Amino acid sequence: MDFFNTLILLLDSTVRLSVPLLLAALAGLYSERSGVFDIGLEGKMLAGAFAAGAAAAVTASAWAGLGAAIMVSVFLALVHGFASITHRGNQIVSGVAINFIAAGSTIILGQAWFRQGGRTPSLPADGRFGAIELPFADAVRDVPILGPIYAELLSGHSLLVYAAFLLVPFTWWVLFRTRFGLRLRAVGENPAAVDTAGISVSWLRYRAVICTGILTGMAGSYLALAQNAGFVKDMTAGRGFIALAALIFAKWKPVPVMFACLLFGFLDAFAIRIQGTPLPLIGQVPVQFMQALPYILTVVLLAGFIGKAIPPRAGGVPYVKER
Amino acid sequence: MSAPYAKLPAWADYGLIPLINLCVAFLVAGLVVMLVGENPFRAAAILVEGALGRGQNIAYTLYYATSFIFTGLAVAVAFHCSLFNIGGEGQAYVGGLGVAVVCLAFDSILPWWVVFPLAVAGAALFGAAWAFIPAYFQARRGSHIVITTIMFNFIAASLMVYLLVNVLKPATSQAPQTRTFLEGGQLPKLNFVLEALGFSVRSAPFNLSFLLALLAAFLVWVLIWRTRLGYEIRMRGFSPKAARYAGVSDTKIVIVAMLISGALAGMMALNPVMGDQNRLQIDFVTGAGFVGIAVALMGRSHPAGIVPAAILFGMLYQGGAELAFEMPNISRDMIVIIQGLVILFAGALEHMFRPSVQAAIATLSPRAVGAEARQGEGG
After folding, report:
1. Cys-Cys link to B85, which of A8, A230, A295, B78 (CB 3.0-4.6 A)?
2. CB pair distance less than 8 Å for B331 and A89
3. pLDDT at B378 over 50
4. Strand, coil or helix: B189
5. Cβ–Cβ below 8 Å for B333 and A104
6. Is A108–B37 a contact, with Cβ atoms under 8 angstroms apart?
7. Where does the pLDDT of residue A92 fall: very low under 50, low under 70, confident under 90, or very high at 90 and above?
8. Chain A residues 269-288 with CB within 8 Å of chain B
9. Do residue B29 and residue B56 come from a single domain?
10. B24 and B119, same domain (yes or no)
11. Tens of pLDDT along B56-76?
12. Residues of chain A neighbouring B295 (CB-CB closer than 8 A)
């Protein structure tokens, strides 16, 4: 029973840790499926987290925080779009630039506005997305096995957690069952064909990067308003890149993206849990190895040792209309 | 990095457009300064004064610039092969391990001038080794080098923390760093050069690796524009298909270009590790690998552009430190914003002002554009 309880706690923190990855990876999915590579997920998420923390601190409303986060990261997404769609600049370079601009300006503005060493003030309960208890969670808590699963694992997360997991089937539906989704995927594979059909490649790609902005804004809000009570400097700590890794790991498909994020979240939760305790058979695993594992797995995958990750064919290539 | 745009006179292409891009980047940075309630002109004045005002400051500026020359060259060599090496940060970090291993092994038995070439080799070897795996996967397995080098930055960070905490840290010490190198592992300072020019330098970490950086810049120029290998690298950069048709092995050229790039990034570690701190510390690279991207873009991947661009970023780093003293609202992170803006305007948006510049030049002197275009086709 003790083992079972530990497992539930471990899975519970897996869910919490994988949500920002999931939101960011789904964000990247829209953009990259439309043929716009985005390594600026990290920066947009960070800027979103800062905007969420700052707006929620000023207005004491979590929803205002979420709105501000989405606005700021959509703005950065549009900058990326302006550079890589309108001006046909290098998408990688533009993503790198956005990461730096976000990293620097969140610290500078945070220090200038709140004077707490780059963090935003601690948020009151109203300024955060609190835990939502699912109905009957307390009543079934004592039922063996299923009780703890329902009461601990499924219930008691914030709104954004449920939203993130609902966005997985939604994204699948948008991509594979709507006209917009069909065109979005087509523009990532063969923009010339889409253009020939009389559909604007630029406008489609712009809409895709706007979706990316909205989702990275949500990912940032989750970090600042649900997981923590406010923004802390450099709080994304590389999660945008792990999300990118998860996206590649899942071969740019929504449902596998969820499992990849859960896997990386589990690795993280597991690393925190086993810190300092030796494992059977293997002995003591260094924390650093566990931290590096998502990156190592991604490299191994990219090298084609676990299946093959084939990116959208037109990814990274600016579209030039023939003249 | 090819530009499918109309030809411009060379002075506009290599002088005017980068200058316009840089000015716009600083203009936007000025807006950020205004947003935090400070006067951008006063900030700029403090920054320049802090970077060049006294001998001491110049020495620091050149110390930072040394690191950026190495990382800028590293990014540039890969750019010429149309590879984007974002892994300079990790390669430099692992390169530091090479420097430390050499210094720890020989610092008590050999003088610095024997240890130095060994340390250069160690840094280059370790940096190149760290670039080799992504290069190999790109060349043979087709995995995107941008993603793998990003991943390798994180893996390098974890690996180095592990090594410093568990292997390299002396048993008696708490801090995760190696022991301090003895005299054999310390590079001589170059402050006397500045003093000979009439500046007074109390103590600054400006050291011999600056000269090595200048030498590396010259050698990169020779390599890229005056050797067969450089020609093949550039050919692969312009058109992989043409290179293959001309009999250049794609695998070989990708791996070689990345090895050179990684070696240059690794050599950056000499400057802080052997030249200044005289020990290997956690996070000693502090973003220099990423600054290299901005430096290479600003310097148009040419050593003659990279050296001044690196010195400019050295000024920003040193002047930024002074600025943080004078204006408490502006911390050193302002540099990170400027760096991002330079990458954005000189890199991703490099063509934004091209049409208007071209129109302006065409109006002022139609012959310049037309004549150059014909010449360009010939060359």
Report:
1. B78
2. no
3. no
4. strand
5. yes
6. no
7. confident
8. 286, 288
9. no
10. no
11. 899 999 999 999 999 999 999
12. none
A71 assigned to some structural domain: yes
Q: What is the pLDDT of residues B322-363, one digit of tens each?
A: 888 888 778 888 888 988 998 899 888 888 888 888 888 888
* Chain B environment of A238 (Cβ under 8 Å): 154
pLDDT over 70 (residue B377): no
pLDDT band of residue A178 (cuts 50, 70, 90) is very high
| Residues of chain B neighbouring A315 (CB-CB closer than 8 A) | none
- Claim to verify: residue B91 and residue B25 sit in the same structural domain: no
Same domain, B9 and B64: no
Structure tokens at A119: 């963090």
User: Is B40 part of any domain?
Assistant: no
Looking at the structure of chain B, the number of domains it has is 2
**Window 46-85 of B, Cβ < 8 Å to A:** 84
Picking from A82, A92, A320, the nearest residue to B146 by CB comes out as: A92
User: Nearest Cβ partner of B143 from A79, A94, A302?
Assistant: A302
Q: Which residues of B touch A311 (CB under 8 A)?
A: 144
Q: Is B356 touching A (CB cutoff 8 A)?
A: no
Model pLDDT, residue B5: 58
**How many domains, in total, are found in chain A?**
1
ipTM: 0.88
Residues B233 and B376 in one domain: no
Are B184 and B276 members of one domain? Answer: yes
In a domain? residue B273: yes
Note whether residue A224 is domain-resident: yes
Instruction: Return the residue in A72, A291, A302, A317 with the most chain B beta carbons within 10 A, the one to mutate for interface testing.
Output: A302
CB contacts, 8 Å: A109 with chain B: 32, 35-36
Domain that holds residue B373: 1-35+349-379
Instruction: Establish if B193 belongs to a structural domain.
Output: yes
B144 contact partners, CB below 8 Å, separation of at least 6: A302, A311, B138
B78 shares a domain with B24: no
